[in-house]
Every structure is written in C-alpha cells, then in structure tokens.
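Sample intake — Inositol-1-monophosphatase
Collected from: Suttonella indologenes
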Amino acid sequence: MTKDEIKLAYTQAMQWVQEAGDYLRQAMQEGFSVNHKADAHDLVTTLDIEIEERLSQAIRRHYPEHRICGEESQSSGATQLSELAGAVWFIDPIDGTINFVKQQRDFGIMLALYIDGKASSGLFTM
C-alpha cells in the first residue's frame, strides 16, 4: 500500500471504530449475553461477536484482498494467520470484556492494520 492508501485506510478505520463504539454504547444499555471461552475468566459477549462482524464486513467491503485476524475469529469467519505478509487487520472488538460485563468504563474497541509484518496504523476507542 502507498502512503496515500494507508492514510485513506486509517481515515476509514477511524470512522468504522467510531461507529462501532456508538453502536456498543447504545447496545450495552439494551442487554447482551455472556459466554465463557476457554475458562471462567475468558469471556465473550454477543456484542464482541457483533462488533467484530461489523468491522470485518467494513474491511471486506473496502479491502477484499486484505486478511483479518479477530479475537473472536471463529464466530466471524476471520482468518487464523501463520504469517503477516501483505495487509492484515487485527480486531479486538471489546478489549476488557470483563470490565464491560461489569459495566465499568475500562474497555474499548481496538483495530490495527499491519503491512508486511509492521504496524501501519492502530486505533483504540473507549
């Protein structure tokens, strides 16, 4: 990707993360389900899955050739990666899920773009 393409991707990612944050703040008031992943301290909510899917869809719509690695990847169809060549997006739909479940404010949405194994841009919103 050229510098201009990376700037455009960053601008788009800012919009996607802001929209996801707006959705999350509204949806957390309406309720959500909580499940355990590997153990009792590893939680996933229905909103984790929804946010990851929303971000994945936005990326695929604009960058179908890019790969996606999401924390909840099994539920969103994201790629499990063995290497970081090319453009790879990393998604943590709710970083701090335990705090989110407890309705504390110490959580956020993370989205990052790596190009050929190097961090190109990253966003985190609370």
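Post-analysis note: Residues 60 and 66 are 7 Å apart (CA to CA).
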